[in-house]
Task: inverse folding
């Protein structure tokens, strides 16, 4: 049987990057922008943070202790700036220059993954170091630091208190976004922009501003997911393509949660669990191919959810009405 | 109070008509600027002379006869995938599932290669492989098509999910076939007797994809411009209400077009497995299903223009890979450069569709 006390924490650790990614993408999609660049943005968010911590670690001599505050703040800030730039590129192209969102997003994914892999593998070479591997263990230890009393509380501590601070931040951000979208005036305006930009525009809401802000914020949140993955989950070790298809899985989660970030919290943990469920199969099994079929489950489930929501055609479970469509006031 | 509101700095108007040569000039300028930016970035990263960088890009792509043929083969494959996605795009169906459709086509082809030799003669085997590839790819395209036609399921998202389902199915079959050794690879199929390997025309293995790409380019052009089905695709793309009003069966058009789109992707899978790799892996499509979306769009869904856009992408990728290896850097720099070029070309489309008039140019009297 599955050992739940050790399985749940690893499912949650897998789920946190997905949670960040899907929260960011939901916020973006609520404004009607379908940003398929999220996988790239998450790579950029991760590598920007790594570059930040790389520069900081290199500036502090080996023996000396790092300043804990700087060790945490510099990577986070760099990560946010990196993803913000990606968000601005997307908005500039799709909102201001009215380009096709699918094409722009895919171009961003190509660019972002290339950017991450290139700097991840060449960073040391570019500054003239001999070591090839990127290992930010010193700054990473602050990211993966657990709560001090987590160990003394048995299974409760393991399941609820054994994560780095970015994991909790992710949950808080998801709840906050859900409240903003559902309960506040700003959220109402945002939804209006995503559902019917013409109506929103006529009501005096600045469509451009909402699209810019929500997309850029969405990218910044998604980028933190990449940062969590490399600084906490991987303990500061970068390896190319290790992040894999998690960015696409985050987009799948958006559909699975029917565009609700609060559902996204549990759903991302569920997806995280499905993602590593195959590790729970007995190791000596006859049919190794089953492992691959287990990995298929998140995508099949998402597809089924997508089909069912479109079949039932309930208004509140649909994608934002203008999702993926550019808005141009003069065009009717 | 609003009466003396300031006039905006510039105004944007939609161009009604732009002569084709002018729009290609704008695109050309954008590509030149993009190449300059790429040169600056490569110079900064590698500290090499930009002229050297570009000359090594050219030798990377065309340095030897072999390299030229490989470039041409890669170009044909990317062009074929772009052509495959285009029928869907022309009716505004965002098929980003090329990756999965290629994989399923490739998987079906590989299955035939593995189990049919000995049962049927080689010529018939290749024909069966072709059919299997086309049908498997077609079915993988058909599913999102039916979903869209029946329940209006968002096709961008459904085709995206189908990609990963296909990847895992292929991964499962590879493990199943590789059996106990479970190296995760099946290796080259029929390495000794070369059964099911596509023929080398004139002794050049890379020629067949090139020929097929040329044929499909011409056929697509005719299909879009001179057939009833091509016209139906255009009308559905323009407005499915109009299509319904004139009595077209929109659902049928969507389903049929998606089958064609998937089938052509399956054909690429057949070429990749039977002709290029002689094996199947989860990465045979190598992300080109996504790249092709951009290639097709850059060419404004015009089959002949796609030759140029896919050339640009392949050329930069191949060349940048060469530089990176020479400098001991990671080859993913080519993705960065491709991304930059795409950003510029995407941005320049704006100046083709819209006219920007600045305030000072107007000098309004009133």
Result:
């Amino acid at each position: 049987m599955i050992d739940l006390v050790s399985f749940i924490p690893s499912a949650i650790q897998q789920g946190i990057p997905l949670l960040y990614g899907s929260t960011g993408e939901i916020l973006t999609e609520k404004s009607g922008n379908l940003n398929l660049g999220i996988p790239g943005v998450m790579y950029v968010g991760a590598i920007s943070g790594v570059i930040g911590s790389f520069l900081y670690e290199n500036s502090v001599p080996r023996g000396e202790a790092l300043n804990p505050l700087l060790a945490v703040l510099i990577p986070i800030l760099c990560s946010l700036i990196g993803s913000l730039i990606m968000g601005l590129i997307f908005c500039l192209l799709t909102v201001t220059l009215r380009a096709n969102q699918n094409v722009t997003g895919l171009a961003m994914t190509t660019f972002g993954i290339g950017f991450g892999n290139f700097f991840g593998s060449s960073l040391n070479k570019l500054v003239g170091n001999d070591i090839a591997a990127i290992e930010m263990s010193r700054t990473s230890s602050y990211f993966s630091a657990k709560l001090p009393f987590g160990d003394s509380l048995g299974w409760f501590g393991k399941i609820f208190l054994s994560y780095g601070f970015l994991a909790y931040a992710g949950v808080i951000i998801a709840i906050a976004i859900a409240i903003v979208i559902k309960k506040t005036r700003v959220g109402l305006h945002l939804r209006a922009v995503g559902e019917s930009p013409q109506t929103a525009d006529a009501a005096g809401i600045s469509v451009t501003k909402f699209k810019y802000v929500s997309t850029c914020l969405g990218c910044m949140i998604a980028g933190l997911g990449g940062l969590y993955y490399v600084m906490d989950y991987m303990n500061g070790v970068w390896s190319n393509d290790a992040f894999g298809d998690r960015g696409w899985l985050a987009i799948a989660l958006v559909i699975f949660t029917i565009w609700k970030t609060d559902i996204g919290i549990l759903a991302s943990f569920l997806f995280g669990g499905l993602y590593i469920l195959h590790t729970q199969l007995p190791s000596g099994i006859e049919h190794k191919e089953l492992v691959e079929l287990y990995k298929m489950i998140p995508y099949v489930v998402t597809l089924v959810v997508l089909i069912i929501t479109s079949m039932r055609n309930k208004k509140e479970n649909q994608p934002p009405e203008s999702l993926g469509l550019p808005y141009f006031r003069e065009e009717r | 109070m609003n009466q003396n509101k300031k006039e905006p700095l510039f105004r944007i108007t939609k161009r009604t008509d732009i002569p084709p040569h002018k729009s290609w000039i704008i695109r050309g300028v954008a590509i030149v600027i993009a190449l300059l930016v790429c040169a600056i970035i490569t110079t900064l990263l590698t500290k090499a002379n930009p002229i050297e960088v570009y000359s090594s890009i050219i030798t990377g792509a065309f340095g030897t006869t072999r390299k030229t043929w490989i470039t041409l083969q890669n170009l044909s494959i990317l062009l074929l995938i772009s052509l495959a996605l285009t029928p869907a795009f022309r009716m505004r169906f965002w098929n980003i599932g090329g990756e999965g459709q290629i994989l399923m086509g490739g998987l079906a082809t590989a299955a035939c290669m593995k189990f049919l030799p000995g049962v049927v003669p080689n010529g018939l085997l290749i024909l069966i492989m072709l059919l299997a590839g086309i049908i498997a790819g077609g079915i993988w395209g058909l599913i999102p098509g039916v979903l869209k036609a029946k329940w209006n399921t968002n096709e961008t998202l459904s085709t995206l999910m189908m990609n990963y389902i296909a990847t895992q199915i292929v991964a499962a079959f590879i493990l199943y076939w590789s059996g106990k050794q479970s190296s995760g690879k099946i290796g080259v199929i029929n390495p000794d007797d070369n059964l099911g390997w596509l023929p080398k025309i004139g002794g050049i293995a890379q020629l067949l994809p090139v020929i097929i790409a040329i044929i499909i380019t011409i056929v697509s052009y005719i299909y879009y411009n001179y057939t009833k089905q091509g016209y139906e695709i255009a009308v559905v793309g323009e407005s499915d209400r109009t299509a319904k009003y004139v009595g077209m069966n929109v659902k049928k058009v969507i389903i049929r077009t998606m089958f064609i789109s998937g089938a052509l992707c399956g054909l690429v899978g057949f070429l990749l497995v039977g002709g290029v790799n002689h094996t199947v892996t989860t990465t045979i499509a190598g992300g080109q299903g996504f790249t092709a979306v951009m290639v097709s769009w850059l060419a404004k869904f015009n089959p002949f223009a796609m030759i140029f856009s896919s050339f640009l992408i392949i050329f930069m990728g191949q060349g940048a890979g060469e530089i990176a290896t020479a400098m001991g850097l990671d080859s993913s720099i080519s993705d960065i450069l491709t991304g930059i070029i795409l950003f510029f070309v995407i941005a320049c489309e704006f100046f083709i569709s819209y006219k920007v008039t600045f305030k000072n140019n107007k000098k309004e009297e009133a």
About this structure: Residues 4-317 of chain A form a domain with the ABC transporter involved in vitamin B12 uptake, BtuC fold (CATH 1.10.3470). The longest helix of chain A spans residues 68-96. Residues 1 and 280 of chain A are 9 Å apart (CA to CA).
